[in-house]
Design brief:
- With 310 residues, this protein is an alpha+beta fold.
- The protein has seven helices and twelve strands.
- The strands form two sheets. Strands 1, 2, 3, 4, 5 and 6 form a six-stranded antiparallel beta sheet that branches. A six-stranded antiparallel beta sheet has the order 7-8-9-10-12-11.
- A hairpin with a 3-residue loop joins β1 and β2.
- The protein is globular and about 55 Å long.
- The termini are far apart.
């Protein structure tokens, strides 16, 4: 199989995935606490980098910093624009121990260590300082997950070029632990009902303030296996019955989303082409049934060194 799309069976690394999810929340909450609010919570996310997941540059008082979950050498790394740097190893540990080491790292570099002490979007989540259970950390599985994210990030970014309207960055939401990209029609959406565990309704409602077609990737927590998803908010009439490509894709009535198993993509002759077909077909279903102005919003996918034709 293509090494760019490695096997990442969820059950084989579920405990390590859960640990990485919570570790990423602690890093993400540092960014959230220090970055001015942006529409749809875009200021809070992490991004795929050449080393793992990064906060990008975070304004922290009179300093600017970047935190990286290095999933190649398996370290937490922190850098400041003034030249400071530090870090510690990612290894089996409790969430409490990770939290303590992260706070100590921020203090060492003169950065702010005040941020939310509880997990988000996890029902009955335990305060970081009280979560003392030893967590697994499987280096090989974590790195395979990272390499999958690199390929997915590249494909999502290519898909994003085929749209002229408002679109999100390709970014990693540490609350739900998924890589996502979202397109907007420009139309205001009905008020969202909220109800997401450990997430204030005002945040959910602002995130879904406008009509969207959103796609992303879960390593397993949403579906029980690694999978791509695509949904519309609000879901237009007939969306669940729409035809999605490829044949392996289907609509999950309980989730209210189209699902494409990661393994179907990984095992395909051309994984990127299969994933693009899923992204495009589900977007077209959301846009056509939702009455989007596609002539004004769509364009050809971008090519290197080729300006978009007008």
């Amino acid at each position: 199989m293509n090494g760019a799309w490695p096997a990442i069976p969820y059950e084989a690394w579920r405990e390590s995935c859960e640990a990485l999810h919570l570790f990423s929340q602690i890093v993400g909450k540092y960014r959230l606490a220090n970055t001015p609010w942006q529409n749809h919570s875009w200021q809070a996310t992490l991004y795929v980098s050449a080393r793992g997941l990064t906060t990008g540059l975070v304004p922290d008082g009179n300093e600017d910093a970047e935190i990286v979950l290095d999933l190649v050498d398996h370290k937490v790394r922190a850098f400041t624009a003034a030249g400071g740097d530090g870090g510690f190893d990612l290894e089996p540990m409790s969430v409490r121990h990770f939290h303590e080491r992260f706070i100590a790292l921020l203090d060492e570099l003169g950065l702010s260590s005040r941020f939310s002490a509880r997990p988000s979007e996890i029902a009955d989540g335990i305060r970081f300082a009280d979560d003392t259970r030893l967590r697994a950390y499987d280096r090989d599985a974590v790195n395979r997950f990272f390499r999958a994210c690199v390929s997915i990030d590249r494909t999502f970014k290519r898909f994003r070029t085929g749209f002229l309207g408002k679109a999100s960055p390709v970014h990693f939401f540490w609350g739900s632990f998924d890589l996502a990209v979202t397109r907007f029609s420009g139309e205001v959406a009905p008020l969202h009902a909220g109800g997401i565990p450990a997430l204030p309704d005002e945040i959910t409602r602002e995130a879904y303030s406008h009509q969207v077609s959103s796609a992303g990737f879960w390593p397993g927590a949403g579906s029980g296996f690694p999978a791509f998803y695509s949904y519309a908010y609000p879901a237009p009439e007939g969306f669940a019955q729409a035809r999605a490509m490829p044949e392996a894709a289907y609509f999950d009535g309980q989730l209210g989303e189209f699902i494409l198993p990661y393994d179907a993509v990984r095992e395909a002759r051309d994984p990127e082409a299969m994933l693009l077909a899923f992204l495009q077909s589900t977007y077209e279903a959301a846009a056509d049934l939702g009455g989007w102005k596609r002539k004004e919003l769509d364009c050809e996918m971008g090519q290197p060194r080729r300006p978009r034709r007008i």
